[in-house]
Amino acid sequence: MFGEITRLTRCGLCQRVPSVASALAPEESISHSVNRSSRVAFSKEIVDSILEDDDFNNDGYLTYLEYTMARRREDLIAESEEKDKAL
Fold it and tell me: Which InterPro entries match (predicted)?
């Protein structure tokens, strides 16, 4: 598991996590196909953002090491912000 590389393609992630896209995309009273295309576009933006921020060697893959480094970075930023608020 730790040595595996996960290929995060735009459409691949959209297919794997439709619940994330539907939970985060704004609900509108428009047709299903338009709503689906907006969710797909929203999901593409999320994937692009993740790869831009977390794919440190820019190979289009997110390794477990890159994932853990990115999460640790986020934890350190959150801890720093909490300390700043306490002062």
Answer: EF_Hand_1_Ca_BS
Beta-ladder partners of 63: 5
Q: Are the C-beta atoms of residues 60 and 7 closer than 8 Å to each other?
A: yes
Which residue type does 59 have? D
The letter for the amino acid at 67 is Y
Which contacts of 73-79 are long-range, i.e. CB under 8 A and separated by 24 or more positions? none
d(CA 82, CA 15): 36
User: Which candidate, 44, 14, 75, 23, places its Cα nearest to that of 83?
Assistant: 75
Residue 61 corresponds to which tokens in the numbers above?
Answer: 């893959």
The Cα 32–Cα 70 span in angstroms is: 35
Sign of the CA dihedral with 62 first, then 67, 73, and 77 last = positive
The string of pLDDT tens digits covering residues 30-46 is 566 778 888 999 999 99
pTM for the predicted model, two decimal places: 0.52
